[in-house]
Design brief:
CATH superfamily of the largest domain: Isopropylmalate Dehydrogenase
Number of domains: 2
CATH class of the largest domain: Alpha Beta
Order of helices and strands: EHEHEHEHEHHEEHHEHEHEHEEH
Number of helices: 12
Distance between the termini: 16 Å
Strand content: 15-25%
Shape: globular
Largest sheet: 12 strands, mixed
Radius of gyration: 20 Å
Helix content: 25-40%
CATH architecture of the largest domain: 3-Layer(aba) Sandwich
Number of strands: 12
Structural class: alpha/beta
């Protein structure tokens, strides 16, 4: 049997904790895997390794990563165009950050890597350099839009920890705008992508979805807002008519305790904090961000660049390790399908 291709891991913002957590993740996984190849700047990783520069090694192709992974952190070196200082973000690094992501996506689409794990990026310096996407998720959707894909289409963000998965109908939107953005079509598509991913990527044959309400008490019959009755409820009815086990709209304040979580496999949430707060409360260090509905596997740690602690040796790799393991598990499940 042909060995599985390694994962690709993009370095993220090199001024953040990306280089540090990537090296720490490799140090923990080198003996057991899954193997990955870093797409990024070799020198940033060598610096983050401290006195262990000899444990960072350039490779020229992803397939070499599997051969050297137990001995050294493999890096497909795409150098920065100008030096970066830890903790000091700069738009000068933006072109390299974007190129690393584009390269990794190309490798994933070609099958040279089995999936993509992305270290965190910072939006502000990218915006200063002309980046036009709200974040990683939307950029990945654009990069993979032309690739063939069967099923409900993303990109859709999922946050996952043991015992809870949430997906987001809207992501990085001001709360004041969310009500005007919600439509039955948008909710139905998010739920269909979620159900499809639960079957395909998590092996859940008959996924159960909870659909969160938008207003307190899910609108309480319209007395606390009309969105639940006029937008979310019709979407749930359409999902049920299509054979999806979806329930709601359900008051969000009673969806996330242990007994409630036992009754569903994922919660479709209407906005960012509704989905992220319960996930981070359950497992702040080990959350994984997945992008659903793409022709490639993509995961990421559920945290940001942490410029305030970059270069100080304080960053924890737990979430990145969880993201690497989950990407490998999903890739293996897709290969076996």
């Amino acid at each position: 049997m042909t060995p599985a291709a390694p994962l690709a891991l993009t370095l993220g913002d090199p001024a953040g904790v990306g280089p540090e957590i990537v090296f720490k993740a490799w140090s923990r996984l080198r003996a057991e895997g899954p193997p990955f190849v870093v797409i990024g700047d070799f020198q940033s990783l060598a610096s983050a390794s401290g006195s262990n520069m000899h444990l960072v090694r350039r490779v020229t192709a992803p397939k070499q990563a599997t051969e050297v992974f137990a001995e050294a952190l493999p890096v497909l070196d795409i150098p920065l165009q100008s030096p970066v200082i830890a903790g000091q973000p700069s738009p000068a690094a933006a072109a390299s950050i974007v190129r690393w992501i584009e390269t990794a996506v190309g490798l994933a689409l070609s099958g040279a890597v089995s999936g993509l794990v992305t270290a965190p990026i910072a939006k502000a310096p990218l915006y200063e350099a002309g980046f036009k996407f709200p974040g990683h998720t939307e950029f990945l959707g654009e990069l993979t839009a032309a690739a063939s894909y069967q099923g409900a289409r993303g990109p859709l963000m999922m946050l996952a920890v043991p015992g809870l998965r949430t997906t987001l109908v809207t992501i990085h939107e001001p709360l004041a705008k969310v009500s005007g953005l919600l439509t039955p079509d948008l909710i139905v598509n998010a739920a269909l992508v979620t159900a499809q991913a639960l079957r395909r990527d998590f092996g859940i044959e008959q996924p159960r979805l909870a659909v969160a309400g938008f207003n307190p008490h899910a609108g309480e019959g319209g007395s606390i807002g009309r969105e639940d009755a006029e937008i979310i409820a019709p979407a749930v009815a359409r999902l049920q008519a299509e054979g999806v086990d979806a329930r709601g709209p359900s008051p969000a304040d009673s969806l996330f305790h242990a007994d409630a979580r036992a009754r569903f496999d994922a919660v479709v949430c209407m906005y960012h904090d509704q989905a992220l707060i319960p996930v981070k409360m359950l497992d702040f260090w080990g959350g994984v961000n997945l992008t659903l509905g793409l022709p490639i596997v993509r995961t990421s740690p559920d945290h940001g660049v942490a410029f305030d602690i970059a270069g100080r040796g304080l960053a924890r790799p737990d979430s990145l390790i969880a993201a690497i393991r989950m990407a490998a598990e999903i890739a293996a499940r897709r290969r076996a399908a």
